[in-house]
Amino acid sequence: MISSRDQYLVFCRKDISKYDSETYERTLILAGKSVDLPQYPEIKGIVRAKTYISGYYVKEIRNEECEVHFIAETD
What span, in angstroms and rounded, lies between the C-alpha atoms of 43 and 53? Predict the structure, then answer.
């Protein structure tokens, strides 16, 4: 049995047009990490998970087809 967990994440999105890309491919970068917010303190008996870095790197291969990479470092 795994104990209860909670987590708060913030994400940032960056869209790169094919005209701004060195490889001429549309790209999306979605990056996130854990944040501690005073309005959401830790709750006794629940483990606060931490994500140091996470995100997606998505690049367009051709119309309606893309390649997706996911990365995460979580404790």
Answer: 23
pTM: 0.75
Radius of gyration over alpha carbons of the chain, in Å? 17
The counts of H helices and E strands in the chain are 0, 6
- Mean pLDDT across the chain: 92
Sign of the four-CA dihedral 53, 71, 10, 34 = negative
CA distance 23 to 20: 9
Tokens of residue 64, six digits: 């309606």
Residue 15, token pair as written in the block = 């869209």
Q: Convert the pLDDT of each residue in 2-23 to its tens digit.
A: 789 999 999 999 999 999 988 8
Q: Look at residue 63 and give its three-state secondary structure.
A: coil
Token output for 17: 């047009």
